[in-house]
Structure formats: C-alpha cells, structure tokens
Design goal:
Helix 6 packs antiparallel against helix 11. By secondary structure, the protein is an alpha/beta fold. It has a 9-stranded mixed β-sheet with strand order 1-2-3-5-4-6-7-8-9, with helices on both faces. The chain has 13 helices and 9 strands.
Length: about 375
C-alpha cells in the first residue's frame, strides 16, 4: 500500500486553567461491590472524579474513573501504572464502567493487571459516569487527555507508585491509548510514559463514509453507526441524526446508546432488523460532513512519544484489517516504533490480547528495546 506524504497536525490548544488543574483529584470513594474476578485478587479499588480537558475546546472538564491497587506491599521503588481505555458499551451518561461491579465487562482485564503487579486506572471518559460535559465519542484528543490525567489521579490515590506509566486500550480505548502516546510528551509532562498497547483500535474509519453511501457497511459496522453519529454531533451540532439513521435505527434513540438493563437487552435483539439502506446518508452534503468528521478523528496525527503494540483480528468486520494496517504504515512513516500483530482468524469481538501483551508491558517498564516492524 502506497502512503501519501503525511503532515503531522499541530498539538491541540489547551487553556491555562485546564493545564493548571489537569489530573487533580476531586474525590475518591472505595469500591466494595465488585466482580469476583477482581475481589479474588484482593486488590483495593476506588471510584474517582478528577480534572481533565476537553479536546474540542481545551477547557477543563470533570471526569470519573476507577483506580485499582494490587494486594500486598508495593515493590521497591513503587508500582508502575497502566491507564486502561475501555471499549464502548453505550454512550448515555450512566455508561461509565466505574458505576458497575463488572466494569461493564472489563473486570477480567483489570484482574489481569492486578496479577501482573501494576496499579491500574480506567477512565470512564468525558461524559460517561458523570455528565459534566457530553461524551465526545472518538474525539482523540479528549480521550488521550482523559487517559493521561487518569494517571495523575491514580498517583494521588496510590502514592506508592513510580512515575512510569503505559496506556492499554481496546477499540475506542485502543484509539485513546494511541492518542495518549501522541500527547504524552506535551500534555503528559512530569510523567514517564513507556508505551501504548492498542487492541482492535478504531483509529481510521474514513472508508466507512463511502461504504455507507453505497450500502456496503457490514452489519457490525451498522450497529455502531448510532455511536458514530453521536460522535459526529458532538463536533457538528447542526448534523441531524435523521440524515444518517433510518428504519429501525431511527427509532428509540435511548435504546441504541444504552449499556445495561432492558434497553441494552432490547438493542441486542434489534440488530437483525437493520437493513443495508438504514445507514445511508440522506444527501451528498450529509455524506461529506460524515467523511470530514471521520477524517478529523482518525489517527495517527503526529509522532508517538514511545513505542506502540498494535494487535487486531484478521476477520474484524468493524475496523477492517487494511484500515489498521494503513494507520500502522502512517505511524511508521512518522517515525514511530510499532510492533503489529494480526490474529488471522479473530474478529473485533473475540480478539485475544495474548501473552505478548503482558510481556510487552513488562519489557517496556524494564526499559528494554521495543520490537519494531516498521
């Protein structure tokens, strides 16, 4: 695949007020009602609210999340920190994983980090968990800021930590981890960033604009269209949902963005009712706005501050393998160090992080040279 010359984007503008307060801990409450996967590790857990920054306007915003401390005394020098970015379960305000005992399905990922002896912090992202500002789905600067500031909050809750940290995310969280890698040197000053793991990252969906106009989206891609249009509207408030979502997708807006309860169950049963034309933009103008937004939120945007591990499935019907490969190729052109693993038979929803992920994190914290497929 040939790569067009790439001009790195300027860093996002951040207000002085946001810079001054980034990562400040606003509140911390111990979590006791948690999934057995976590309680069996005897980890301590806290729900936190902390200060972060909107990537849209650079202004301060309050964000919630959860912090997990491994059992037992800290190792000599302190625990290293992993900031985990979750995949989207829903986009309504109550869809912050910190509000649920099973962390909306990510308890096993946190438990694995506890077994590795790392402090873990999982941001809910702006607008999920608390509604200080609306959620900006796939807006990469916001997500990157949220992931970085979660590390500062974690250090306030668990003082026995080092300044070393890594990002680790899945799908939307994979994009957030990649974005954090690009912002760590500028926005993440005072911390020692060692690298990002991005699993099935939603880093480059630009081709979905053309596929939607020709009714060639996969069913898995159509199912996430309500999320994408919600993200589009956060950047383009004038965009009309009815220009993009039709048929069953145009009804019961709350159901399509829900993450739990009866509405989420109803959504799962409604997926088969989606028709190919239900996600076609109504006008060429609407299609162009959609393409512009998808381009705006795509990554990479600039050189990463530390190595990346990118893993995706060869049968991914949401983020097609060639889209991830294009993002990796662009990152390589920018000068990134990237190890890229494709699991040929796996999909977006059954991707196995594998033992390579744990080993990669351990090696980055140890300061060993990173594998590079560029």
């Amino acid at each position: 695949m040939s790569i067009e010359p790439w001009d790195p984007e300027a860093l996002p503008v951040v207000s002085d007020a946001a810079l001054q307060d980034r990562g400040d801990l606003i509140s911390s409450t111990e979590l006791t009602d948690l999934d057995p996967l976590i309680t069996d590790t005897q980890a301590s857990a806290f729900r936190v609210v902390y200060q972060s920054t909107s990537g849209i306007d650079g202004l301060p915003v309050q964000v919630s999340g959860s912090v997990f401390r491994p059992a037992g005394p800290a190792p000599e020098g302190g625990w290293n920190i992993v900031s985990f970015g979750h995949a989207p379960a829903g986009l309504s305000a109550e869809c912050g994983p910190s509000l649920y005992p099973n962390l909306l399905g990510f308890a096993s990922a946190i438990a694995s980090l506890m077994k590795l002896g790392m402090v873990a912090v999982m941001t809910d992202y702006q607008g999920l968990g608390i509604s200080d500002r609306p959620h900006a789905y796939l807006e990469p600067n916001t997500a990157g800021f949220n992931v970085i500031d979660a590390v500062r909050a974690a250090k306030a809750v668990v003082p026995e930590t080092t300044s070393k940290w890594a990002a680790y995310g899945v799908a939307q969280g994979g994009q957030a981890a990649w974005s954090a890698a690009e912002l760590a040197d500028s926005y993440g000053t005072g911390l020692d960033f060692v690298g990002s793991v991005a699993l099935a990252p939603t880093v480059d969906l630009v081709q979905m604009a053309e596929l939607s106009t020709t009714n060639w989206l996969t069913r898995d891609q159509q199912v996430i269209m309500p999320f994408l249009i919600a993200g589009l509207q956060s950047a383009y408030p004038e965009a009309k949902e009815t220009d993009y979502l039709h048929g069953s997708l145009a009804t019961n807006h709350a159901m399509w963005l829900a993450c739990s309860g009866a509405l989420a169950d109803q959504r799962a049963k409604s997926n088969d009712k989606i028709n190919p034309a239900d996600t076609a933009p109504s006008t060429p103008e609407a299609a162009e706005i959609f393409k512009t937004w998808l381009t705006d939120v795509s990554l990479p945007k600039r050189e990463a501050s530390a190595p990346l591990l990118v893993i995706n499935g060869g049968q991914d019907a949401v983020v097609r393998p060639m889209w991830v490969q294009h993002a990796v190729d662009v990152g390589c052109e920018l000068g990134d160090t990237i190890q890229h693993i494709v699991r040929p038979e796996q999909t977006h929803y059954n991707l196995d992080a594998g033992g390579e992920t744990a080993l990669w994190l351990i090696q980055r914290f140890a300061g060993e040279p990173a594998p590079n497929d560029c």
